[in-house]
Amino acid sequence: MSINAAAIRSENAAATNSARTAGHVTNADHLIHFLHPAYDFAAELSTRQADLRCVQSRSFAEALPKMAETDILVVSSLWTSEILAKAPKLKWIQSPGAGYDQFDLAQLKAAGIKLSHASGLNANAVSEHALALILTFTRQLHLARDRQRRAEWRGMIRSRAQRESELKGKLLLIVGLGGIGMRIAQSARWLGMNVVGVRRRPPTPSETQMRIVPPAQLHSVLPEPDFVVLACPLTPETRNLMGAREFGLMKQSAVFVNISRGACVDQAALTEALARRAIAGAALDCFVDEPLPASSPLWAFENVVITPHSAGERQNHETEVIDLLLDNLQRLRNGDELRNQVI
Q1: How large is the C-alpha radius of gyration of the chain?
Q2: Quick check: helix, strand or coil at residue 237?
Q3: Which of 17, 102, 212, 335 is least surrounded by Cβ atoms within 10 Å, i.e. has the fewest?
């Protein structure tokens, strides 16, 4: 899609390499390439900026013919390192999501390509999603939906243990107290929950309303909470952070919630813990393989709620990403550091 009819100025290979090495873009117009299977970033940009050109691609195959002229690439899940050889003019990658573990940082740095992400834009959505999943288990909404499909009316329950519960007084453990984790904590406390957070940075004087422990103490606090929420990024330290030992330390009545990254969890260990009822249930928004294969046993568990990596989905996503893109584009032109710049 072309925003206007003005042709983008051509740059020779020497100029391209020079601009990459210098870490800034020249005054030439830039071709912004949006590579995403769903979001309409190009349409959103067209409502704001008349002096920029862009193209939109929905797949890797569709994107390849357009890569030769691409200066700026907005991409997340469709990224592959094969793109680098096809994009000699590429200077900057803006990820429209918070995660960037799919990018080879050393490879991009060697090529002189900047990378920034969109962390913080979806903090409200993800934190609300996490709370919705917690409430789903507390109020047994997943079981109610299952009964609805069977046209089954549940009568009054004699057993106290089988009735719906409430959040007041429950203990929530949040692993990762970044923007999302802190929002979850604030909302949970407002609902009457007690909160423990796991974070490298020690608590500040203003954070005395909750208990914060370092990652080294995760095992010592895992036996305590009613809910465990993963809200950490995927790093070498957090890969397979939750495994057989960790699930074995949790209370049998506890629920595990993952709104971070699938690879932070040993999925086989989680499946086994659920199968033998070592934990009460799990609410999962992300998985090692996405889409989650139809053959996965997780689909069949009554005590599992699955959402399709949709915690960050919201109606104004394109608007906020283009706001960030335009702000970073100005910073790039000025030679300033980008918002959420990684390299």
Answers
A1: 23
A2: coil
A3: 335
Which distant-in-sequence residues (6+ apart) come within 8 Å of 178 by Cβ? 119, 231, 232, 233
The CATH code that applies to domain 13-120+315-334 is 3.40.50.720
- What single-letter amino acid sits at 302? E
Clarify whether 36 is annotated catalytic: no
**C-alpha–C-alpha distance, residues 206 and 217, integer Å:** 22
Return all residues near 145 (Cβ < 8 A) that are at least 6 apart: none
Give the Cα separation of 42 and 31 in Å (integer).
11
Catalytic residue status for 333: no
Bridge partners (DSSP) listed for residue 306:
284
Share of the chain above pLDDT 90, in %: 87
Q: Are 210 and 198 in contact (CB under 8 A)?
A: no
Per annotation, catalytic residue among 164, 166, 290, 337: 290
Between 3.65.10.10, 3.40.50.300, 3.40.50.720, 3.40.190.170, what CATH number should domain 123-306 receive? 3.40.50.720
The one catalytic residue among 53, 129, 309, 317: 309
- Tens digit of pLDDT for each residue in 191-226? 999 999 999 998 887 777 889 999 999 999 999 999
- Mark whether 219 is an active-site residue: no
